[in-house]
Amino acid sequence: MPLRRAPSPGKLFLARLAFALGWLSALAILLVGPGYRYGHVDLVMVLRVLTIGAYAAIGAVVLGLSVSLLLPTAGPGRGIVAGIFDIGHRLAASVALLGLIGLGLATAGQVFAPDIAARVEPPLAITIAAIAAAAAIVLGILASIAAPRGSGKPGVLSALFGVGLGLAAAYVPLSWRLAAQSLPPINDVTTDTRDPPRLVALLPMRGDATTAAAYAGDRVARLQRAGYPDIGPVMLPAAPAEALTRAEQAARALGWNVVAVAPEDGRIEAIAVTPWFGFHDDIVIRVRPTPEGSRIDIRSKSRQGLSDLGTNARRIRAFVARLAP
């Protein structure tokens, strides 16, 4: 039986550190949502936790991949199959590290090397790094399994698990960061930007809001039309009373908390609560008669944040899809 050569204490420590960083970052990011939802942390603390957690998660991925290259998944007596998996693991880990280097150039390079940073696309770098890192994890584990007993190197699985935890933890803040860069920086979306539905019954319930209830006007309208050109009213071949009933049914089916139905005004007001953080967003639905039937407009407004990361537009699309004839 081939003997296993023990790695140096320093390499073993780094492997365990990668696992610890991945585990702690994943736990912090996982718990910050419920922490805000139940009032234990404020929005400023949420942003800090997500930022620090993202850096720690990326650190776990970089450290874990680097250590896994220093600690082969199988030793000299590993066999042909384990050797192939080990080579694949090394190639995938190297590609993942190159992708992360590209991501670093795209961010920090904006200050130090703007010409180089401009040539790197962060979404592409993140995608390449994530896929390659996932492949490195799978191939590394397969190499360890395929290696004859006693030929593997201790510490490599800790490093690989650290990479996996880091990838999972970094997904949320990085995906939000990319969404914030690609989507319009607005928190108020409506199907009628010229005459958006107004909040009435919801106004007294917005005590925790950090955004104004009034529509911000032309600036937001221009950004919405550029970012969400498909958002528009629903035209139904139905009387206003029937259209109002269908709109209320659609709102309740989507899980919104309907707080007011005013048939005389053709108005429905509701609150949508996001699943993880529990953000409360205000919704107004308005029904007006047309010669062909009814026109239904909807407005979805976030109570917190400068950008909704596309949440309000997705919510309106889901509502329109349920009502479309």
Q: TL;DR of this structure?
A:
This protein is α+β, with helices and mostly antiparallel strands and 325 residues long. It contains 10 helices and 6 strands; from the N terminus they run H-H-H-H-H-H-H-E-H-E-H-E-E-E-E-H. 56% of the residues lie in helices and 12% in strands.
What key phrases describe this protein's structure?
single chain; alpha+beta; TATA-Binding Protein; 2 domains
Question: What does the model show?
Answer:
The chain has 325 residues and is an alpha+beta fold. It folds into 2 domains: 9-182, no CATH class; 188-323, 2-Layer Sandwich (TATA-Binding Protein), CATH 3.30.310.80. The protein contains 10 helices and 6 strands, in the order αααααααβαβαββββα. Strands 1, 2, 3, 4, 5 and 6 form a 6-stranded antiparallel sheet that branches. Helix 1 crosses helix 7 and helix 2 (43-70) crosses helix 7 (156-182). It is elongated. The relative contact order is 0.13. The model has no long low-confidence stretch (mean pLDDT 89).
Question: Topology of this structure?
Answer:
Layout: H1 9-37, H2 43-70, H3 80-107, H4 109-112, H5 114-118, H6 122-146, H7 156-182, E1 188-190, H8 218-227, E2 234-236, H9 240-253, E3 257-262, E4 267-273, E5 280-290, E6 293-302, H10 311-323
Antiparallel strand pairs: 1-6, 2-6, 3-4, 4-5, 5-6
